[in-house]
Task: structure prediction
Amino acid sequence: MTTNFSKDRLGDRRLVTSAESKAPHDIAVALLTGGSDKPYVFGLTTSLTAKGATLDLIGSDELDCSEYRNNPSVKFLNLRGDQRSDVGLVQKTLRICKYYLRLIGYAASSKPGVFHILWNNKFEYFDRTMLMLYYRMLGKKIVFTAHNVNAAKRDLVDSWVNRLTLRVQYRLAHRIFIHTEKMRQELMDEFGVASSRIILIPFGINNAVPNTDLTPSEAKTRLGLLDKEQAILFFGRITPYKGLEYLIDASRKLWAKGSKCRLIIAGRVDRCEKYWEAIRQDIQREVESARIILKADYIPDEETEVYFKAADVLILPYKEIYQSGVLFLAHSFGLPVIASDVGSLKDDIVEGKTGFLFHPEDSSDLARALDRYFASGLYANLGARRRDIQEFAAERHSWDTVAQITMSTYGDLLQISWPKNEVSTAVSTASLDVNVP
Result:
């Protein structure tokens, strides 16, 4: 009996046998990951194999885990290998060149008829143009997940070359997965993509990070917080578009009014040394006084739950974004989110039920949103509300829904039938406006 991994309604891992899954179909896919984004890769891989797909998972040391090695429906191919940044330029160059040679060789001899690209590799312009043409020449059907329609525009480094290569990739992909209606519209308006080639899928809830019996009280103790202290969390990569400076300023406004809240900043600095150095110097006094708990480093999966369980609220002070995986990570732990009203963040925040919104790049409005939150019933009853938020997120962002829509798309491209009633049910469930008590 074939055994696969899936998750239950509240996001915990569990075993799923082939008897529980739908009948397997002859759908073989190469999943091209770029070697990163473990949470998304894990959720998609385990949910697709539970539906009967067989996968060649093109990964790296970062993605290697026992769930893949022990799953007979997954062939894990570690073509990318080590991606550590603390090596010399020559070693990095040789490493990436070897990877591209392995990838090109794999494509030429691979059996799967569908190549599903989750992320491009190091040389994005090459990936968007020459690699896409190469895959098409080999007769592969190409599915591309556009997590960001144009990340360079978001990061204020857009160029005509960037837009041209994006247009080529979008033109050569047979189907494009996006997560929001706003992204669909941008693809159509700015890149001329036909609506019929764009597929809307939910952003699957994070089920790769361990969620143990650790309690919020125990988590606070681990971070040096008192049980009653209000803990505000900023989590994830530190980069200018995420607007950390607005959160710092808003926190200072609360402290000036006598608040005893603590700010936790946890995440690695992402290629913005000058930006980070200015912030680091600015917050040095608050770090020394312990008003700010600082962990400016990569947070391993096994430590992540400590931060989300110790915190009383997650803040997303982004200046620009399409959608945020950190938001869904917070919801998987039942943590409310206060976010700037940019991109499609408001689509997944129910005011007063799962969080609050504030005006982007406005630290005063963020401070007011924090005041509203700490005076709300959501905060007062956080212990009970965490489970409500988990259930809400699991319903709206089920990997089962993602897998059903994805399998249907694969089937259409390969001209293999996939039950349509599954897909229609999945779309209906994903669009439910679930009421959180």
